[in-house]
Amino acid sequence: MTVNKGKGDVTVGVLALQGAFSEHIQLLRQAAEILADKHTTLVRRRWTFIEVRTELELSSCDALIIPGGESTAISLVAQRSNMLEPLRDFVKVSRKPTWGTCAGLILLAESANRTKKGGQELIGGLDVRVNRNHFGRQIESFQANLDLPFLSKANGNDFVGTNEPFKAIFIRAPIVERLLPNVNGEQIEQATIEETVIAPSRSMDETVRKIINIGEVEVMGILPGRAAALKHDGTKEKLDAEAGDIIAVRQANVFGTSFHPELTGDARIHVWWLEQVSEALNRRRSP
Ligand code: GLN
Prior knowledge:
It comes from Hyphodiscus hymeniophilus. The protein is of the alpha/beta class.
C-alpha cells in the first residue's frame, strides 16, 4: 500500500476498533479542505483518511488518531486482534505522529490510574500519568470554553481568523495528573501503586532517534478551576487562581487531549494537528 506513495501524499489513519472514529474522519476531511484553501506548501499535500483495524492498514499510515470511547474496550479489542504491538511500534519505536482523544489519551499515557491490573493494556508514548474518569460518571459530562494557546493567532495560526475559545466536551474524561520524568525507574515505582497500570517500554528506532528528540512533556492546555470554566462571569478571575487540570499535552509527535474535539464540528485542532503532521513528515522525508 505504501509502494506508490508520492512525496506529497499523506495517509492518516483513525483507529476504528471502538468509539468515535467516524466523527474524526469527518472532521479530518473538513480540516483538509480548510488547509487546501490556504495558499501554502501544505496545499500540495494529498491527504487520505482511513479507518484502521488491521496491522496492514496501520502500516500504510503516516499518522494516527486514537479516538474517544472506552479505553478498556479499545485495548481489549486491540489485544484480541493483535494490534497492541503494532500500535506500540508505530507510536514508540517509529515515533510517528499520533493524537489520542479522551480514551485515546489514556491509551497513549505511560501510566493510568483507576484501572484494574490485567484489565487494561496501555500503548504509551506520553510520559504522563492520567487519572481516568476524573470528573465522575457519564451524567457529570460537561462542556467548557477553553483557551488553547497553540490555536491562537498570536502563535501564528491565522487559518480560522478568530481567537474564539474552543468549546470542549468532556465525557468521563481523564486528566493528566502527573508529568513523569523521562526515565524508566519512575514507572516501575508507579506499578506498585494500587489500581495503576503502566505501558511496557520500547526503544525508539535508531534512525528515528537521529531525527527526533523525545524531550519533556509540554502542557498544551489547562482547564481552569471547573466552576470558572463553566461560569465565564465576574468570578472567573478569582477562580482561575485555582491550579486547574492539565487536559492537553504533547511530547515529540505524540499529542493527547482529554476532551472530544471530534464531537463539536470545530475543525481547528484537526487543522493544527494536520499541519504538525505535515511538518513532521518534512523533517522525516528531507535528507
Ligand atoms: N472513561 C473512558 C475510559 O476510561 C474514556 C471516556 C471517553 O473517551 N469519552 O476509557
